TrEMBL record:
GO biological process: translation
UniProt record similarity statement: Belongs to the universal ribosomal protein uL10 family.
Keyword field contains Mitochondrion: no
Keyword terms: Ribonucleoprotein, Ribosomal protein, RNA-binding, rRNA-binding
GO cellular component term of the entry, any: ribonucleoprotein complex
Protein name per the record: Large ribosomal subunit protein uL10
SUPFAM superfamilies: Ribosomal protein L10-like (SSF160369)
Length: 179
């Protein structure tokens, strides 16, 4: 039975996991206080909440959020969690950028959409250019281009017919007023 303090921490983690779009797990064992403060500052600048969490409490929080597809093997070793609430790509980019410069911190995995991701998948998300909004815009642009062309092709004959009829009507009107 968890103590009152642990129950409060579980509720806090459950809330954060439920609200976050991505939760990235990082092993920070061996980081100096100076490095940890630098990491926290970089996470704040990227609008990512960063905190140390006990694996058992984090696993219980995931279970309470009905994240059944999360592999429980990711909850081992010392774990710090980066919660990204707005943009999954920006959060992954912030964490992977720090990990690439750090000699001590190690990217463990992540939780995205109730599923666990490998460290390689998180790095792949971090390499997406621009962020989530730019990716959405590119998809919309990719879909909109062919649709706009198809619309133009389908409406062109009717539009051209209207122009021909309008020109013919103007020609008839000009001929009738001349007499």
């Amino acid at each position: 039975m968890p103590t009152q303090a642990k129950e409060v921490k579980i509720e806090e983690l459950t809330d954060k996991l439920g609200r976050s779009s991505i939760a990235i797990l990082v092993q920070t064992q061996g980081l100096s206080v100076k490095d940890m403060n630098e990491l926290r500052k970089k996470m704040r600048d990227a609008k990512v909440e960063f905190q140390i969490a006990k694996n058992t409490l984090l696993r219980i929080a995931a279970e309470r959020n009905k994240m059944t597809a999360v592999d429980n093997k990711i909850f081992n070793g010392q774990t710090a969690v980066a919660f990204g609430y707005e943009d999954e790509v920006a959060a992954a980019k912030a964490v992977t950028d720090y990990i690439s410069t750090s000699k001590v911190a190690v990217l463990k995995s992540a939780i995205l959409g109730g599923r666990s991701l490998t460290a390689e998948q998180v790095e792949g998300i971090g390499k997406i250019k621009g962020g989530k909004d730019q990716s959405k815009a590119e998809v919309v642009g990719t879909l909109q281009g062919p649709l706009a062309s198809a619309y133009g092709l389908f409406t062109a004959p009717l539009r051209d017919l209207c122009y021909v009829l309008q020109a013919h009507a103007e020609q008839l009107n000009s001929g009738a007023t001349a007499e």
